[in-house]
Amino acid sequence: MPRATLAAMTALPLQPPRRLLTVAEFAAFHEATEGRFELQEGNVVVSPSPTPEHQVCLQELLHQLRPQVPDHLRTVPEVDIDLVLVPSHRPGFVRIPDLVVVTREGLKRRRAEGGLLRADEVVLAVEIVSDGSQRTDHTIKHGEYADAGVPHYWILELDARPALIACHLAGEFGYVDAAPVSGIFTADEPFPVRLDLDQLG
């Protein structure tokens, strides 16, 4: 086979398996591919590439957030999280939040054991809403993160003026959503934080 043809073939993206995957099977598939994939009840879902505005927001959010995160926590952008919603042999759920704040112990555990970070190691998940993710971020991931026990979930809207909706777990009721905040956002949980949201847009 000509070398150019072989090179072209190896550059083609690997197609998702046509069956439901466990988290371990998805992790093995994901390691062999390039691109943004998530796992929703065993189904491989392609995440659209982020827009420049999305990435500017994420970078500025990281810049503001990192100095305020306590030493026992770390900020990690765009990383696979096993939501651990089902037993390991069942079709699973893996999401890539735009940003998570996780425990250092969780990072240490993952480094030692391999695999993915788990939902119980996440104290905060953040999603930046894009044109193609309105329902996913506000409804589907809202329910999944609550079911997974992620204690805090922030939804960032980038309309005319950036706005943040802070959601926190309230027992069997799932998330309780605060009213959207523009301008300066402050919170005491999951750690004291102050953000200038206007700098995110």
From TrEMBL:
The keyword Magnesium does not apply. The keyword Cytoplasm does not apply. GO terms for molecular function: endonuclease activity. SUPFAM superfamilies: Restriction endonuclease-like. InterPro entries: Nuclease_put_TT1808, Restrct_endonuc-II-like, Uma2. It comes from the Bacteria. Pfam families: Uma2. Residues 24-162 form the Putative restriction endonuclease domain. Keywords: Endonuclease, Hydrolase, Nuclease. This is Uma2 family endonuclease. It comes from Pseudonocardia adelaidensis. The lineage of its organism: Bacteria, Bacillati, Actinomycetota, Actinomycetes, Pseudonocardiales.
